[in-house]
Design a protein that fits this description.
By secondary structure, the chain is α+β, with helices and mostly antiparallel strands. The protein has helices at 26-41, 127-140, 151-166; strands spanning 6-7, 46-48, 58-62, 72-84, 87-93, 96-105, 108-114, 120-126, 173-174. The strands form three sheets. It has a five-stranded antiparallel β-sheet, with helices on both faces.
């Protein structure tokens, strides 16, 4: 088990769709453990595998940020199959350090996925949980939350990141506490 670096935009892996999981082996179980440890170390409430450089379609979500083990969810091949309503709220992303913006997402979603035993599962979520699920599925589809911003906000954030890149103030990765790399 290891805490891994979280890749930062504009790393290409963040804008590339992930590949479906077809089998659960020790490598996948290790990936999931590393994702959970990394998410909790940052701390965050969700993490997609491509955020730590793995192209498999895996996401973990824990709205308690590690406080309640019952809240931890692992999703293989998740996809949103139903959405309803709208909600707008401040959203951040571990791959965009110190950036948050108001993002509009569905207020209710239904997600289908597999668990670690390859059993089909379905989650219905509202509010912040719906927001978190949409955010992670977007990551797995190669869509960063920058794309969900208004064109004006997107342009401002992109210019800010470009300026920080030129000044060498924007990291290639975030190293959560306890990360050995």
């Amino acid at each position: 088990m290891a805490i891994r670096p979280i890749l930062v935009y504009p790393n290409d892996v963040l804008t590339s769709p992930t590949l479906p999981v077809t089998q659960v082996d020790e490598s996948l179980r290790q990936l999931v453990q590393d994702m959970i440890e990394t998410m909790h170390a940052e701390p965050g409430v969700g993490l997609a595998a491509n955020q730590i450089g793995d192209s498999r379609r895996v996401a973990v979500v824990d709205l308690s940020a590690g406080e309640d083990p019952e809240k931890l969810k692992v999703f293989l091949n998740p996809r949103i199959v139903f959405e309803k309503g709208k909600q707008s709220g401040e959203e951040g992303c571990l791959s965009f350090p110190d950036i948050s913006e108001i993002i509009t997402r569905p207020s209710l979603v239904r997600l289908e996925a597999l668990d670690l035993d390859l059993n089909a599962i379905e989650e219905e979520a509202e509010g912040f949980y719906a927001r978190a699920l949409c955010h992670e599925v977007d990551h797995l589809d190669g869509i960063v939350f920058l794309k969900r911003m208004s064109p004006l906000k997107r342009g401002l954030v992109q210019r800010r990141i470009q300026r920080m890149l030129r000044q060498e103030e924007w990291p290639e990765a975030v190293l959560p506490e306890g990360c050995e790399e």
